[in-house]
Design a protein that fits this description.
The complex is a heterotrimer of chains A (about 270), B (about 600) and C (about 350). Chain B is α/β, with parallel strands linked by helices. In chain B, about 55% of the residues lie in helices and about 10% in strands. Chain C has one domain (about 5-180, about 190-335). The longest helix of chain C is centred in the first third of the chain and has 32 residues, at about 5-35. The chains are: A alpha/beta (about 270), B alpha/beta (about 600), C mainly alpha (about 350). At the B-C interface, helix 5, helix 10, helix 12 and helix 14 of B face helix 7, helix 12 and helix 14 of C.
Amino acid sequence: MRETNEPLLRTRALSAYYGKVQALAQVELEVHPASVVTVIGPNGAGKSTLLNAIMGLRRTTGAVVYGGKDMGRIPAEQRLAHGLCLVTEGRDLFGTMSVRDNLELGFYSRRREGRERMRAELARVFALFPRLGERERQLAHTLSGGERQMLVLGRALMARPRLLMLDEPSLGLAPLVVREVFASIVQLRREGVAILLVEQNARAALEVADYGYVLEMGAVRTQGPAGQLAGDRRIVESYLGAGSGAAPLRPLIDAPATPDARGMQQPELRAA
Amino acid sequence: MTRRSCVAVVLAIAAVLPWLATPYQVTVLSFIGLYSMVALGLVLLTGVAGLISFGQAAFVGIGAYAAAYLSVALQWGAAATLLAAVAASSVCALCIGRLTLSMGGHYLSLATLAWGISVYYALGQIPALGGFNGLGGIPPLMLAGVSFASEVPMYYLILGCLCVGLVLVRNLLDSRPGRAIRALRSGAVLPESFGADTLRLKVAAFAVAAALAGVSGWLHAYMQRFVNPTPFGLNMGIEYLFMAVIGGVGSIFGAVAGAALVTVLKQQLQDWLPGLLGQAGNFEIVVFGALMLFVLARATGGVWPLLSRCMPAAPPMDTGALAGTALVPAQHGNGPDGEGAALLSVAGVVKRFGGLTAVDSVSFDVRAGEVVALLGPNGAGKSTMFNLVSGNLTPSAGEIRMRGRRIDGLRSREIAALGLARTFQHVKLAGDMSALENVAMGAYLRGRSGLLGAMLRLNRAEEAALRQTAARQLARCGLSECVTELAANLPLGRQRTLEVARALCADPALLLLDEPAAGLRHAEKDELARLLGQLRDEGVTILIVDHDMEFIMKIADRLVVMRFGQKIADGDPGDVRRDPVVQEAYLGA
Amino acid sequence: MDAGTFQFLLQDGITSGAVYVLLAMALVMVFTVTRIVMVPQGEFVVFSVLTVAAFQQGLAPRLAWIVVGAALVATAMELAQRWIARDAAGLAGRLLALLALPLAAAALAVWAVDQSSPYAWQCVGAIALVTTLGPPVYRIAFRPLAGASPLVLLIAAIALHFLLVGLGLFAFGPEGSRLPGFTFEGPRIGDFRVSAQTVVVVAASAMLIGAMLLFFGQTLAGKALRATAVSRTGARLVGISPDSAGELSLTLAALVGAVSGVLIGPATTLYYDSGFILGLKGFVGAIFGGLAGYALAATGALGVGLLEAFASFWASAYKEIIVFTLIVPVLMWRALVDPHVDEEAA
């Protein structure tokens, strides 16, 4: 069907400024339904600014088209009702409120569906993140970094978004926890949620993504299918510098590789 | 038509007005002048230093009553009562300021509110001051044999005092202490980072504002020949703040614009409305309130910025005047401290925020003349470590020493005085000041001129030297063409370099650079690397955080890598980079 | 001072203190959600009292005309803005709050309440009128200043205060009014008889505070308000509109103010301009909690009431000076305990 070829999210010549300083330069990207797109790049590249711009938290020139609709006139707080959800690192949590309250507020945009529905969603989130269930009554600011990340992700899941934008979810997390988080990302994709993942951890990101963009100084430097990017030396260089002697990312993804027509090995996406 | 000639025209009009106006109108203009002086003080306090005060009317009252009492009861002459008025209000401000300015935000405004109410009631209760009936019979003002008893001479005196006040405040803002006061608006972190004592600065600004209010009170007393507590109560205190904000706290002329607009509006409403709507004394205040809301909604920055756009722009700073001698090098100097000595020593430092351990028992040294790079993925604790060293945070445990002396627990300005200068991850610049002025802030501790010297322009030699030093640092960092540009208009990369120039202006022994290369293009990074190399050769010790490995490899002598708050590597750059643990930390597992 | 006087002063202090507590909590609520220092909070109190007094005296409630006027102006502003932006989303809800409810309250006050109505019904009419003033006031005064600095918001609140005081003079005239006291017999504590006024005030305050706690603690709307106060961005990310939150908090403040008016009305004579000093005392209490904590704000406000009662006994002429000068050391202590945390991190 033609609709499935239409991207769920598309940005057109998206540019953003901090005063007179350009933070994003003519960014064009697409996210299709039920796919994982990642935006990677070094610090200060403008990745967070990009997500904030798509969510409507920053003033921009250019267009953000979601579900075929220009989001320009729609303020940030109304975008969630359309299914567009942004998950930042733990700083946008309601620190002085309990874990449960934070999750309940995630349901705010769906409050008309009633308390029963809310309780069901809560149960689902607690099943996904049992540690949150243990800390249900605790205040959010007493949680550790990893738990905060889980909470902020759980809060987003309460809203059942169609497009989930994640801003560096692996930040400050131990490798095991990162695996958990990324496993749930793959799970969400299977359930039909589209995901736009901004990450510094290029390895893990390219592992779960279908498509990737590399952002540098506010502009898209490279883009391509995730497997292709994984084999691209330039990414490694932009992180670790030229001549660092590090091998490209690809061999470090422990998935069986199948060579494609060009002889480049394409890893299969790991099934969670 | 230049801005200078614009100002001259306005002054000429002001000088000629009394001949065109009725005596009543001249009195109104005089009151505008009086109010402008108080509003000017508020522009300095609120617009520049970011402090909200409701109590300025109290200082006007102190000045007025000082003049009244001393001239009536003790028969002092006008010049003497002027000194007394200024002294009384300034001294009160110093005392009150010391007590209350250490409080932040709303505590402070309430304290000024309380102060305003208390003084009002006190003035009304003291019998010697005439109680609520007031004190009359103030003799006419005689200065140098000239009588200022009638409206027109008094108007000229007020106009003269207002102009003097404007010049003094402008001089102040354009000086070493002035730059530090202007930096207060962005918060305490920035001024403390280059060594300014924010409390003393706030108290100083408070005292200057009070002095201006005191002079206004002195003039008020001689103009009315009578004082009672009513004009010095909370209502007036609120109105002064009103005038300052409506006029625009961003500029000294906002004070005049605000005072004029509010006074004239109130007068006109009182004249027109009763005729229009029949009822006496009611609707002016309603219309007044509504108009003020309308003005605020249309122009949150006040009326002056709108007016200012109709005038020609101010001429750019004269860069030719930047020739001359620079400052002497700072005491802590930049010679090597004996090769191999540890300039900075971090031992077992821990920092916890609630449930989060941001820094977990980290130890490393930075030897004199070294460039050490602190690396790690996002969230590793590098910025926290920086803040611990510079004194913006206090460690939960552990010790930090600079030159053998413990600095953990010291305030950032005390550490700055020991020879540390830093830049910030989130750029901290005064956006409304030029690049040169921002950089000159860095040399704060190398100057000595105080407020009085600044206001009276006695600091010209030092100011020239400070500017010359700033210009030199800008040139060194490749920013010569941006000298007169406003900091907010520079691209992010250049803003970061500007911070480096500011840090260099302090002639530091230890330089802390937080992601100086972020946002720079390749060529600019090369320039910066060269500059840092040069600094290292001159004996400056550098601790740098950055993510650009290529850049780091060009300048670092040693790498320290952090992850999850812990140190995972420390040593030669090549070795550290090949370390598989480090690679895993960066690229993920 | 003998025991009897002490108990009397204590009662006096607690009674007025309880009302200051309500004012303080309203101020904290509005400030935390919107960063506005609600200078005109006292006007809500005074408007409510004087409207009940108007009913009592058989006069038409002129506040109703002010409410209608405000509703029309706010609606006009809203329609104009939406016309320019070609945006009709949620218009029905907006019209309900800005136009329908105020008009309904005005109609109620003009046609359903008069001198012969029971006292309680008159109070309800006045409270309804003042409460529906909330959304139009927010729309007119504060919505256009959505992103402004706290200083500008403060000045706007002051301008609004002038506006409301002027309208108050128009609506109620310069004479003061005092509401009829409660005439039942209060309980005894020891050999001290608690006055009816105290019983009503303390009971009503406790109930109102209980209701607020319930609202903020148990309902999603209340949690949404709290969330907006904690993190504005976070609130937007979960779909809470900061403007709606602001409007709701202001309306709640108007409700609390209106109820406070009915409670304090019998205790003193209030004039059209008495609101400012009432709000100021509430503000002192609120500052005690750093404009952030409800419990401390309540403690502070109660303290102000007690201080005022005892100061008026010892030196009534200096009462105001004592209260306001003693604030300074208390503030200093508070500022020491809660050190000024810099909003920005390095």
